[in-house]
Amino acid sequence: MEPTVAAHEIVEAVESIVESGASRDDVLREAVRLLKAGCPHYDWVGIYLVEGDTLVLHNYIGKPTDHIRIPVGVGVCGTAVAEKTNQVISDVAALDNYLACSLETRAEIVVLIRREDEIFGQIDVDSDRANAFAAADEALLDRVAGLLSIKF
Ligand code: SME
Question: Which tens digits make up the pLDDT trace of 123-144?
Answer without folding.
Answer: 999 999 999 999 999 999 999 9
